[in-house]
Design goal:
The structure is a homodimer.
Chain A (H helix, E strand, L loop, with lengths): L2 E5 L4 H12 L3 E8 L6 H12 L4 E6 L35 H16 L3 E3 L15 H14 L1 H4 L5 E3 L7 H10 L24 H13 L13
Helix pairs in contact in A: 1-6, 6-7
């Protein structure tokens, strides 16, 4: 069975991508990255999701991006935006070079495992303001990766799969439901509480909630606010 | 003054590159990466070198690459080669995706600092067996980086400087001596002892020692072996 490294945050998108990779027949090694984000319960969700979807193993690598600052997700002095606060430009929830760092770690593990496939749940629709969610960035990373490794020098060919990059949230949810993903196990909220309950008002919650509504799928998310 | 992020391992090459960046007038932010390498005294050397060469600040980011295994530098079950053991192919001291990960971290810090210059002491002469020391890899990383960041989207242009990539070890040492680098502060050995003394027999020691000889510069390295 072909091996793949799947980046798994514990959120809705990456859970769907793991299910897709499994359906394509890959033996999936799930990698979660603890980069000092506020939403730490996501990492606990990643462990649950990996188990539920039949990953071969799940590992969490810790790296202290908070040391550099610059993002609402790692810097406690920057507030997480609530709905309607920011309409233009790159959100304050953007973490500098985050996807490059996470993909680099996935590349390292893939090389050790002799896996030639990486799966990544980037989405250029919802995260259109994030430079490192764009297809042209993904192609440039893949090209660099194919010059970076021992496997590449020895004739291997690494493929970076981003199967949901152009999908709406509703479409992602429809795909996941078909593949049996239990979204009740996932956490998307930027400021979930210690019991994995969501705020219902941050950008991530709004996107997720609207996605379930548009897909016509009951929202399994538990909220700690009086969310309708 | 323009800011630059300089990757600083504590070894001879990166110390020279820091001196070069300083001479070109950059305010240098030195980044060291603790990736679970055996030669931990290198990290202590990085702190000394940054101070001696006038870096604005030095930070060490810890990341546990040993969790993935696959290299003699991070995996205690793989022996560090001594002279003559390996003549062909990629050395066992190659760390999977190491340079990609270190450059990604430098990119993240550069974005937070609003620096547009990265300096990296990669060398394609001594490390000709390492895929991620080649000029074509560096160009691909730079291209990817210029699609990855908020700064790039907003019109900035990141430059990856690799000023010693094509230099012999002797040439690097000559340049550094001219710029006042005290190589007695640096540690290159793959298995230095707790007092920063070198083994004299690993590949890195051999390259370094031969470099001083070829440059006609007295070798300031302290050895724990009966090294001539």
């Amino acid at each position: 069975m072909r091996k793949a490294v799947v980046l798994l945050s514990g959120g809705l998108d990456s859970a769907t991508v793991l299910a897709m990779a499994r359906q394509q027949g890959y033996a999936c090694h799930a990698l979660s990255v603890d980069y000092g984000q506020r939403h730490r319960v996501e990492l606990e969700a990643a462990v649950r999701v990996a188990r539920a979807l039949g990953a071969v193993e799940q590992r969490t690598v810790r790296i202290d991006l908070a040391a550099f600052g610059g993002s609402a997700l790692t810097d406690n002095s920057i507030a997480v935006p609530i709905q309607g606060v920011q309409k233009h430009g790159i959100p304050v929830t953007y973490v500098p070079a985050r996807n490059t760092i996470m993909l680099s770690l996935a590349l390292a593990w893939a090389e050790v495992l002799q896996a030639e496939d990486l799966f990544f749940g980037a989405n250029a629709v919802d995260y259109s303001g994030y430079p490192d969610c764009r297809p042209e960035y993904m192609r440039a990373f893949e090209r660099m990766a194919n010059l970076a490794t021992k496997a590449a020098v020895e004739g291997g060919r690494l493929t970076l799969h981003t199967p949901i990059i152009a999908m709406s949230k509703a479409k992602i949810i429809e795909q996941g439901v078909q593949l049996g993903v239990d979204y009740g196990l996932t956490v998307s909220c930027y400021q979930a509480d210690a019991e994995s309950r969501a705020c219902g008002v941050c950008d991530s919650c709004r996107l997720r909630c609207a996605g379930f509504a548009a897909a016509g799928v009951p929202d399994p998310t538990r909220y700690y606010t009086a969310h309708a």
